[in-house]
Design brief:
Oligomer: single chain
Distance between the termini: 28 Å
CATH topology: Sulfite Oxidase, Chain A, domain 2
Number of strands: 12
Helix content: 10-25%
CATH architecture: Alpha-Beta Complex
Bound molecules: ligand MTE
CATH superfamily: Oxidoreductase, molybdopterin-binding domain
Order of helices and strands: HHHEEHEEHEEHEEEEHEEH
Low-confidence stretches: 4-17, 24-42
Structural class: alpha+beta
Length: 309
């Protein structure tokens, strides 16, 4: 399977046992209200091996990346997810993988992680709303997870679904949004070495507001493609529906590749604001494919990218 070209430098990150023990330990401790009592830091480090991938990019602060979020299941305000996502139970967690695969099944997150090499990747992240950040994600290639389910030759797309649990995700009680949140990729996009499943960020377990315990990160596409808190993955022959396209097909397409040359119908996509840069927000020109064109542009050879938005 294709590996990202600088992968060799990424040796494995966290001994998986440590990651999982911590996951179990923290869950148990939180349940008993013990974390502080045990003298455990609120968020123990994953000890991800630092690599030079993404070197030179200025990291967004942890504080900014975890308090300015889009996660409509917890409200529409940027500060809502940080306030309300604590209510989400992320352990136990399992992911149902089905459709055009030879090994369909419901996989416990622990079992998925057992087989994965966790690595850190520093990626640019560009929201369609024209703000951006740079985040060191910890996780594994999506292609490794798909391979586990042994895809069939006729699979052309991968559909993703977020948890539906209105009792914990209060935003899901609002009738106007087509819950659960769904997203999709073409099979070759999903198998591309840059497509990443994150279980952590900044060397820590993913905070709930950023999509715990498992979220997609597709760095060359607008942020809404990076679906959070995934419980279902289905390989299909037909292009699957995607939430923002269902809500407003004129403004949000299936592909949604970052493209400064194609404006959103209501605003320019030529530049973006770096979150956390305050009142005099730092602006940067937006790069085609968010700067990952060398790696991904060939996926779209022959497509008119101003039409397939
Ligand atoms: N996934 C789910 N399930 N629900 C959401 O509302 N918002 C998307 C994406 N994934 C969203 C989601 C949008 S619009 C963006 S920009 C990113 O998550 C934001 O990720 P962040 O909060 O980690 O920055």
């Amino acid at each position: 399977m294709a590996r990202y070209k600088s992968d060799l430098k990424y040796s494995s990150v966290t001994p998986k046992a440590d990651f999982m023990n911590r996951r179990q330990l923290m869950a148990g401790a939180a349940g008993l209200g013990l974390a502080a009592g045990l003298g455990m830091p609120a968020a123990a480090k994953l000890n991800a091996t630092k690599t030079d991938y993404g070197a030179g990019l200025e990291l967004t602060s942890y504080e900014d990346a975890t308090t300015y979020n889009n996660f409509y299941e917890f409200g529409t305000g940027k500060g809502d997810p940080a306030k309300y996502a604590k209510a989400l139970t992320t352990d136990p967690w399992s992911v149902e993988i089905g459709g055009l695969v030879n090994k369909p099944g419901t996989y416990a997150l622990e079992d998925i992680l057992k087989d994965m090499t966790l690595e850190e990747r520093i990626y640019r992240f560009r929201c369609v709303e024209a703000w951006a950040m740079v985040v060191p994600w910890v996780g594994f290639q999506l292609s490794d997870l798909i391979a586990k389910a042994d895809p069939q030759g006729n699979a052309k797309y991968v559909a993703f679904e977020t948890l539906l649990r209105p009792k914990e995700m209060h935003g899901q009680s609002s009738g106007s949004f087509p819950w659960p949140y769904v997203e999709g990729l073409r099979m070759d996009e999903a198998m591309h070495p840059l497509s990443f499943m994150a279980t952590g960020m900044y060397d820590e377990v993913l905070p709930n507001q950023n999509g715990a315990p498992l979220r997609l990160v597709v760095p060359w596409k607008y942020g809404f493609k990076s679906i959070k808190s995934i419980v279902k993955i289905t390989l299909t022959e037909k292009e699957p529906p995607t939430t923002w396209n269902r809500i407003n097909a004129r403004e949000y397409g299936f592909y949604s590749n970052v493209n400064p040359e194609v404006n959103h119908p209501r605003w320019s996509q030529a530049s973006h604001r770096i979150i956390g840069s305050g009142l005099f927000a730092k602006k940067e020109p937006t790069l085609k494919f968010n700067g990952y064109g060398e790696e991904v542009a060939s996926l779209y050879d022959g497509m008119d990218l101003s039409k397939f938005y």
